[in-house]
Structure formats: C-alpha cells, structure tokens
Amino acid sequence: MNQETENVECLIIGSGPAGYTAAIYAARADMKPVMYEGLQPGGQLTITTDVENYPGYPDGIMGPEMMDHFKKQAVRLGADVRYGMITEVDFNQRPFKCVANESKVIMAQTVIIATGASAKWLGLPSEQRLNGSGVSACAVCDGFFYRGQDVAIVGAGDTACEEASYLAKLCNKVHMIVRKDTFRASKAMQHRVENTPNIEIHFNYETEEILGDNVVTGVRIKSNIDGSTKELKVGGFFVAIGHTPNTGIFKGFLDMDEQGYLITRPGSSYTNIEGVFACGDAQDKIYRQAVTAAGSGCMAALDAERWLASQQHATA
Description:
FAD/NAD(P)-binding domain
C-alpha cells in the first residue's frame, strides 16, 4: 500500500513553548511550518497550574491557558498545527523523510525538534492523582506557592540538592528524602544542603505514599533499614529524580549526550546534521524554563530560515 506523501518547507516536531515559538517565527518568515504536537500538546506546562515567572503576565496565568495562547498565535500567523506525532525519521538525506502517525510520509526541507523532556516520577498512584495539587517536578516553577510552609523533596543528585536549597529560602522546612545513605550530588552541593538549617535529610528512606484527598497534606516514608514508617506533614511534594529527553527516535542520526539530550552547536540550534535544528528541553538540561525554551524556539526558526536561504542562494 502506497503511503501518502507531503512536501513541506519546515517541519516542527513537538509543541510547548519552544515548538510554538518556532512555529510563530517560521510562519512570519513565510516558511509555511507544519507542526505535529506530540503525545502531550503544549508540553509540560499543560500539567502546571499557576505560571507566575513568565514575562507579560502580571497576574500570572494557568499553564494550559498559556499554551493555548501560544498555539492560537501560531495558528493565526499561518502555522499548520496538527494533533499527532512523528513516529519515525530518516535524516540520511535531504529532504528529510519523517513518518507521521505511522502512516503519512512528510518530506521536509528543514526540521525543528522541540520534543521536550519528561520528568521521571516515582510511579505512585497518589503522585499522579495529586499532580498539580501539591505534587510537582519543578521547584523553581512552583516553589513560590509554598512559601512559609513545610515541604518534602525526593532525590539525591545535584538537581535535588539545588532545588532543596531553593525551597529552603522560601519554605519553613524542607524534608529531603534520600533512598540510600549517601548523596549522588557533588561535594559542594552536599555541603550546601547539610549546612542549611531548615533542611532535614532523611537518609535510607523511600516514599511509600503521598497523603491527601484533594491536595497534599503529608507524605508517608518507609525505612530501607528496618521497614518502619513515619509520616511528615507537608503541603508540597517535589520529585527531583531527573528528566528523560524525548529524543529516542533520533538515535543513530543526531549527536546526543549519555542522557539523550541533543547536542547543539554553542550559541545556536544547529545539530550535527545540516538542516536539522533542536530547541527547548530536548537539548537544554540546565535551565528547563518556559522562557528559555521559547527563546531557543525563536533561535531555531531563525537558524532554519537563514540556513534554508543560504541553500537556495547556493543553488540559484
């Protein structure tokens, strides 16, 4: 059976602040971008409640509403935004062959990757049930809402230590739950946490259950030594055990680090393949903020536009 084939100038894989911003800029450059939004249209912000740190919203805004604004702006300017996902790519030659929803072939002159990253979770039913109602995977995004309260954070690496230190400046007390008897974090980060008086570290404990009906009211943790449990009264529960970049389909084509984050040329969105650009959390494991993702989406669209113009000029 012959697959349906479509030729496009600019294909954007993934949505969220990076993808939608890339679509806005690409549409204004008359690149007629086609976007496939992915499994989670709007990205991680669609599971975020109040967003107070994005410029231009003095009263804050709900994450899903903000992403709806981004999408409407992209569509108004001419982006073709489609529900669905790219399930296969072939970057061996240009135009690049990409398969949408396992059935439709897209032949793209340029590709912008904005597939983002997914937070790693503990896998508890209560964690998913209370996600956005006291459970968060981003202390920098949501810590402000818990100022003056007691909170808990689970994790043992640099990110967990950084986020615990950040929360300690806002919150009354921070309970840090560490599965083993040591941190995985650098010595400097360990010392920072250990020397912060309102951080209490619970070594050799795992989270058994997050408590609360509609909002988080506490957490029950279990000792890995004797199996005993104890309950901590907290209003917020933060998961800081890492993120997984959604870049699996690009393995074998694009350079990535050991965690799977795409490697881009410093100061640009260029990947190792000419004509393929990456932006947002798929290539950013340091900042991971909506505003930096949007900025990198702008960069990707500008890079794609200029690169395509240079190719057309070279063949003219």
